[in-house]
Structure formats: C-alpha cells, structure tokens
Design goal:
Layout: E1 3-4, E2 7-11, E3 16-20, E4 24-25, H1 100-122, E5 133-136, H2 154-160, E6 162-165, E7 170-174, H3 180-188, H4 191-209, H5 218-237, H6 248-260, H7 278-291, H8 293-297, H9 315-319, H10 334-347, E8 361-365, E9 376-379, E10 384-387, E11 392-396, H11 397-407, H12 409-428, H13 434-450, H14 475-486, H15 499-518
Parallel strand pairs: 5-7, 8-11
Antiparallel strand pairs: 1-4, 2-3, 2-6, 6-7, 9-10, 10-11
Length: 521
C-alpha cells in the first residue's frame, strides 16, 4: 500500500493561493496493470484552505502587476509536431477561449517532452496520463470524474483553479470566463496558464516516480513542481518545443503566475498544503528554466533554501501585515530608518570591499522637475535617483507612495536599495554600463537585504549589532513584484534587464551576499 496527495491550486476572491489536500489511502489498482507506475490513490473531497493567517490580518490585494499590450498576443504555434486536438477534453458545450489552441499546443508538447525526459531522468518507461485533462466550465455536462467522490463539480474546480488527481490519473483546470486562469490570461497572457498546467503535470510525474509516496512536506514536492514548470518554460523560450515557442512576455507571464499562486503572508510554508512565498516559487521556477529537469529531480533530496513567510517581530507588525508607515520624517517611517540602515550597511564595507563610499542624504521631491542635479543617475519618474556629485538620493514621494499603496513598503525599500547600490558602483569605479550595471545594482541590493532579514531565517546570515532595520514576511515578495513592474518587457531591450534577469540577480545577492555579486568584478 502507498500514500499520496491530491494536488491543487486554490483561488480566493482576493488572491490566488496554492493548496494541497492531506494524505490519502490506496483504494484500488488500475485496470491496466501493465501501465501502472504506482497504485492509484483516493483523495478526500477538496477542502479549500483559508487565505488568511490566524495570526495576521491579510492585505486584500497583494498588488497587481501592470497590464501590457503583450497580454493580448499568444505564443506562436509552430509546426515541427502536430498539435493533438484531443490533448484536452474540452467537453461538448465549451465556450471558445482565445487561448484554447495555445493550451492544446502546450499540453501536446508537455507530453512529448516528458516522453523524452522521464526515461532519461528516472531510468524507467514513461507512462502517459491514463485519464484526461478536463476543461471545466459552468455549462459543461457533469462528466468530470471525482477525486475520491463520484463527480467533480465546476464549483469545486473554481475553488481550486487546477488540480491533478492520482486516482484516475487526470487533471482539471478552470475554464470559466470569470475564473482566475481566464483573468490571468487576459491580463498577462496565456503563458500564465501554460505554467500552471506544466506545474500540475509535474505532479503526475511525481506520482510516477514515487515522490508522492515519500511523506515529504508539501513544500518540497511543490518546489520541485515549480522547477519542472520552469524547465518546460525554458524549453519553450529557447525554441526547443515542438508545437509552440514562448516570447519574453510569456516568460514574464510565467513568473507572474508564480507570484499569483504563492502562499499569503503569515502562512507557515511547512504546514500541509504550504507552497512557499513568491520569492521561493520564482526561485524554483528559475532554477528549472536555467538548469533543466534533471536538476529539478534532485530537489526532493537537496531542496533549495527557503525564506520564512511568518511574522516574527510582534503584534504591531502583524496588524500592519508587515508594512512600516510611509513617510520620511519620523523615526519609525520607512523613509527614515531604511536610509539610515543603508548607510550603516555600506559603511561596514568601507574597510574591506568599498573604501570610498560616503553616507548619502535623502532629498524628497513632489515632482521630477524639483530635482536639481547635473549628473543624475536613475529614473526619478520611477521613484528614486542618485545625484553623484552631491551624494544625495532623490525620492519622488508621490510615485513611491503609489507603489507603497499597491505593493507594500519594500517596493520603496527595493528602489532605495538601488540608489545606494549605484553609489557603491561609483565608489568601486566599475566599468559596467547599461543593463549589466543595472543587474549588478539588483544583486547589490539583494546583498544588503541578506543582512536585514530576521535572525531566524533558514539561511546563514550575518548580523550587525548597530543595525535596527529588518525585512519582514512578504517583503521579498514585494521586491519581486516591484521588479516585474520596472523591468524591460523584452530581453533584447537591454536597458535595465528583463524581469527574469533582474529577479535572478536580486536572488543571487539575497542568497549569496556581497561576495557573490562582486566575484567577477
């Protein structure tokens, strides 16, 4: 006998959250024993997990990423392999969606890909899904099988967005007009749904490999599924897929999908059903994208580092869901203590890495025309800029307040970190220019963040007794979402770096510190 899980994505009216059911028991064998990789499982009826922490009031909006014109286009369908029109069971009453052909192409290629990759990675024959991939929508006849129940209703699917069930070996996704997937596709592009389905198919791979029988924490199997989804996205982006090719906008959409289905702030990712923060989920996705599925297969035994998602510094922070007050005058306002901490952090580098970096002063302006500087670096319209001749950091108060309102306090922290990082590059006299320089600033900002995370983070982190600032649960996710807003839309724009490149550089700094950033300088 074995155990396993029914794997799902959960949505609420406010935010998308990944969720998982509890352990389940074996019920019966498949009728075709020659193709059964592991015994099927019976899952209890899906039980939606709350999107609020019992210990913290949730922000009803984790912050939308900007809509852009690329969301209206679909990844081009290629012809190196024939799209399987039966790759998805669309049902008899399905309303036409703009992304239908794309999803058929995506699922065709995902199965072709795993037919190649599974034997290479697991040294065993690949067994395709024994069940179907069902599109669920309100007008569909009740012909979707249940996962431990006779039938799956549309309302159940809508609650969970998409899921894989081991009993029957099938997948279901919400194809409703008002569902989260349709909303994501409309706003950010169909690549978001492709990433979600690649993630769910990864759970079918785990079912075959025996990973779901190992009683691992949910976060471990979800990290691997995120990695596999990233690996397939990388394949599509490199032009290696047989039925479609991803654009830069589609890769960005995949990153956005990871942020939209992350755990809410305050949730312990090690509880059953925990999937991790946006910072962690994007990280696993990027590892798969860059290193491929064989690396993902190692993550169950060699997991990637995780950052805690729970509040750690008291009831006041919990009441504010982690956000410090906005402002630049009073002691507890973020525009006061963050610049103080940035000066302290970079001062600690004076005798070692950067000998000629003086403390910077903050100058708050209400509009870009208020800036008085002949050698301004950065984009004051975006929020912050550095005047190298005066050693001043200009802050656009209305622009940063708008980010604060939408994304949270560390959107401002990320932009302030950029200005100090640019000053550090000036002091180091680096010869980096353009996009490469911007990506170094992302890394240096991450190196600063590494030293202000709570002391009980899972990472080995240096501490300084004279430092008072700390990032709280959700701050790293806010930084990721800010990057998605300010990044180049296309990787060949080469201005500030694509979202993928900037997030990768920022995470390098957070996980590896200053040494990791300047190793190649």
């Amino acid at each position: 006998m074995g155990t396993g899980r029914m794997i799902a994505l959960l949505a609420s009216a406010a935010i998308g959250v990944a969720a998982c059911g509890g352990d389940v028991l074996v019920s019966a064998e498949r009728s075709d024993q020659s193709r059964a990789a592991t015994p099927p499982i019976v899952a209890p009826p899906p039980q939606p997990r709350t999107t609020t922490s019992p210990d913290a009031e949730q922000d009803p909006d984790q912050g939308p990423i900007d809509e852009d014109s690329s969301a209206t286009s679909l990844p081009p369908i290629t012809t190196s392999a024939e799209v399987d029109p039966t790759a998805i069971d669309l049902g008899s009453n399905k309303p036409e969606r703009a992304y239908d052909e794309f999803l058929l192409a995506a699922m065709t290629d995902i199965e072709i890909w795993w037919t190649e990759q599974y034997p290479a990675i697991y040294r065993d024959e690949f067994v395709p899904l024994q069940g179907e991939i069902y599109a669920a929508y309100p007008s569909r006849p009740d012909d979707i099988p249940g996962c431990g129940t006779p039938r799956t209703t549309y309302d159940e699917v809508k609650d969970f967005v998409a899921f894989y069930c081991g009993e029957g070996d099938f997948m279901v996704y919400d194809d409703g007009e008002d569902g989260l997937l349709a909303e994501l596709a409309k706003t950010y592009g169909a690549g978001t749904i492709g990433t979600v389905l690649a993630h769910e198919y990864a759970h079918a791979i785990q079912f075959r490999s025996g990973a779901l029988d190992r009683s691992l924490p949910t976060i471990r199997t979800e990290q691997q599924a995120d990695c596999f989804a990233g690996a397939w996205t990388g394949r599509a982006a490199r032009g290696e897929a047989t039925t479609l090719q991803f654009t830069d906008a589609d890769v960005r959409a995949g990153l956005i999908a990871m942020t939209k289905v992350s755990d809410p702030v305050g949730i312990d990712q090690f509880v059953p059903g925990g999937h991790g923060s946006a910072f962690d989920r994007v990280g696993a996705f990027q590892v798969g994208f860059l290193e491929g599925p064989a690396r993902c297969a190692e993550l169950l035994d060699e997991p990637l580092p995780l950052v805690p998602n729970q509040f750690t510094v008291g009831d006041l922070e919990q009441a504010r869901t982690g956000d410090a007050p906005f402002g630049f005058n009073e002691e507890n306002q973020l525009g006061t203590f963050l610049p103080e901490d940035l000066n302290l952090y970079w001062d600690n580098q004076l005798e070692t890495t950067i000998p000629d970096l003086d403390a910077l002063a903050l100058v708050v302006v209400q509009k870009p025309s208020d800036v008085e500087c002949d050698d301004l670096r950065g984009d004051i319209d975006r929020g912050t800029a550095l005047c190298t001749s005066s050693g001043e950091v200009y802050v656009n108060s209305p622009a940063t307040f708008e980010l604060y309102e939408v994304l949270g306090d560390f959107s401002v922290g990320y932009l302030l970190g950029w200005a100090w990082s640019e000053a550090a590059q000036v002091a180091l006299d680096t010869d980096l220019k353009g996009e490469t320089r911007e990506l170094m600033n992302d890394c240096l900002t991450g190196a600063w963040v590494k030293t202000v995370v709570p002391i009980d983070f899972a990472l080995p982190l240096p501490r300084h007794e004279d430092r008072s600032a700390t990032v709280s649960a959700g701050d790293l996710d806010e930084a990721i979402q800010t990057v998605l807003l300010v990044a180049d839309l296309n990787s060949d724009d080469d201005i500030v770096g694509s979202a993928f490149e900037k997030i990768d550089s920022f995470r390098t700094g957070v996980l590896g510190g200053l040494d990791a950033c300047i190793a190649d300088l």
